[in-house]
Amino acid sequence: MIHIIIFPERFYYLACFVLNQTKSFMTIQERKKTITLNEYIIQNQTAFPRAKGDFSRLLSHIGIAGKLVNREVNKAGLVDILGDAGDTNVQGEDQKKLDIYADEQFIAALKASGVCCGLATEENQEHVVFDDNLSRDGKYIVCMDPLDGSSNIDVNVSIGTIFSIYLRKSAVGQKAQEYDFLQRGDEQVAAGYIIYGSSTMLVYTTGQGVNGFTLDPSIGEFCLSHNNIKTPDDGRIYSINEGNYVRFNTGVKQYIKFCQERDEKTNRPYTSRYIGSLVADIHRNLLKGGIFLYPETETHPNGKLRLLYECNPIAFIVEQAGGKATSGNKRILEIEPKSLHQRVPLYTGSKQMVNKVEEFLVNEKQVVAKV
Ligand code: AHG
Ligand code: MN
Ligand code: MN
């Protein structure tokens, strides 16, 4: 005590020293808790006993391309990369410059991985074949929406990337064939999305739960932030482009009215949330509980969303998180694909909400059948 009164500055220095030590100790402790995407993949490689690191390589290359796309998305307002590229993609929709950039980055990254023999993307009419010696031996193929929600780029709203990974069906050493890509969703070995939002996240599943990694821009690494994501069994959010209301079938219209009805027991009316970027709408509903609907309409008789690189990967993730995904009359993951850019209606999210919309859709079919 006397010592502190006589030499107060010594006490001050001692206190600073102790505080600093504690701080550095805590920093070390915190760092220990950080698991990067690459570390996580390697730790969990045992799930693929015969993978010999190929799968880790593939996913890590997707992560690298994701970081490059993220960099461009973040500076989109600063450079001449905004706006239409003046071309249209295979569905006749306007291609944005970032769509093309993202497509090129993912193609380059997957080729560089040396373990992927080809991929199908939204931006290419035919599947892309990697015909170099290394890639021909690659056992994986990938289906991908390189940039999802591109109409939202110009207005600074969340966009994403969606991917789906399969083992090839054709023989190793040959060129990838179209049938390699026309596999049912339940054959996916992994699927994921990257959301370029208020923070950037990579969420993926290998069929053993869903994990989310947030990009820490200070170290340039995706770090495990959402371990074993489980979606609530029920929710209060419904996500649908209600502007299409008049074009929906009666079942969907009735379900929307159901969501808007007052009922204290079921906590209705529900909340309507629709961003217009599939990845962002799904990500929110996955974490908070809810349902996403993109039904068939007069103008889009099979819905708008693509089976191979939008619905299948999302369905795999949602199911792995405990939710459900259906086209209205079939589980998404059991649909036999007929073509690369095939569209299907999508109803996905919290189990109880999807079950409810199914009741309305079944009733609609029964009424139509009687007429
Ligand atoms: P993309 O930008 O890859 O073409 O996808 C857009 C999709 C999807 O992200 C979103 O859910 C849906 O289009 C929105 O469609 P509407 O504008 O018809 O609601
Ligand atoms: Mn899309
Ligand atoms: Mn797209």
What does it look like?
There is one protein chain. By secondary structure, the protein is of the alpha+beta class. It folds into 2 domains: 35-226, Fructose-1,6-Bisphosphatase, Chain A, domain 1; 237-370, D-Maltodextrin-Binding Protein, domain 2. It has 11 helices and 15 strands. The chain has helices spanning 2-6, 8-33, 37-43, 54-74, 97-113, 133-136, 178-181, 250-260, 278-288, 307-320, 351-370, and strands spanning 84-88, 94-96, 116-121, 128-129, 140-148, 159-167, 190-196, 200-205, 210-216, 221-226, 237-239, 271-272, 291-294, 324-326, 346-349. The strands form 3 sheets. The protein has an 8-stranded mixed sheet, sandwiched between helices. Strands 12-11-13-15-14 form a 5-stranded mixed sheet, with helices on both faces. The longest helix is centred in the first third of the chain and has 26 residues, at 8-33. 43% of the residues are buried. The model has no long low-confidence stretch (mean pLDDT 89). Bound molecules: 2,5-anhydro-1,6-di-O-phosphono-D-glucitol and manganese (II) ion (2 copies). 2,5-anhydro-1,6-di-O-phosphono-D-glucitol binds at residues 93, 122, 145, 148-150, 241, 276-278, 304. Residues 145, 148, 278, 310 line the site of one manganese (II) ion (MN).
